[in-house]
Amino acid sequence: MFLITFTGLDGSGKSTQVKLLQERIKKNGQTFLAFHILDFSLANQIFRSYKKKGSPAPAKTSASWLGIFLRKIFLFIDLFRFRFFWQKIQKQKINFLLADRYFFDQIVNIFFLSQKPIPKTKPLWQKFAEKILVSPTQAFYLTIHPLTIQSRNRTIEQGLNYLEKKQLILDKLANNWNLKKVNADQEKNQLADLIWKYIQKINH
């Protein structure tokens, strides 16, 4: 089974590319399972259970020390849950597991909410998270300028400054995680063609 993940800014087209990739996989006579990391997150599941059905978690641009600590704890819990899930689905006849966002995005969000510079020495919590993380077969990073995102008739709740700061963090960490950067500032089907070419290379 191949684990294919999509990381990027809000509005970069991750969900669209996951859907287009599903269509390609179907046409190729193969099977897939798709999930969104926010739906998988235990913290989000708990939040939704206390709110009205379908109510999203409020957008945040910062968090307290306790909030950051709890996010790290839930990150570790989710990483272990995903490892168990990954081992379980190995028994099924599924060719691809597609992730709309992945734990890379969760780590980036923790750094962003802490509002502190990324330390030169990797913190212990990050080292531990990366050690237990299931490494993707191919991890895509959809790169695009924040201004382009805003021009796509999509309102990002946190604003341009949020996108720019998050992009800086993503760019710094992308190389450490060996993310495959693909230019998302192009027509969606052209981007899907490019992604499919990379997928075919690992699918033979």
Radius of gyration: 17 Å
The N- and C-terminal alpha carbons lie at a distance of: 12 Å
Major sheet, described briefly? 5 strands, parallel
CATH names the topology as Rossmann fold
Per CATH, the superfamily is P-loop containing nucleotide triphosphate hydrolases
What sort of overall outline do the alpha carbons produce when their principal axes are compared?
globular
Going across the biggest sheet, name each strand in turn.
2-3-1-4-5
Number of helices: 9
Which series of helices and strands comes N to C? EHEHHHEHHEHHEH
Specify the CATH architecture. 3-Layer(aba) Sandwich
User: What's the helical proportion of residues?
Assistant: 40-55%
Strand content: 5-15%
Number of domains: 1
The first-level CATH class is given as Alpha Beta
Mean pLDDT: 90
Structural class: alpha/beta
Please mark out the parts with pLDDT under 50 across 5 or more consecutive residues, or reply none: none
**DSSP strand tally:** 5
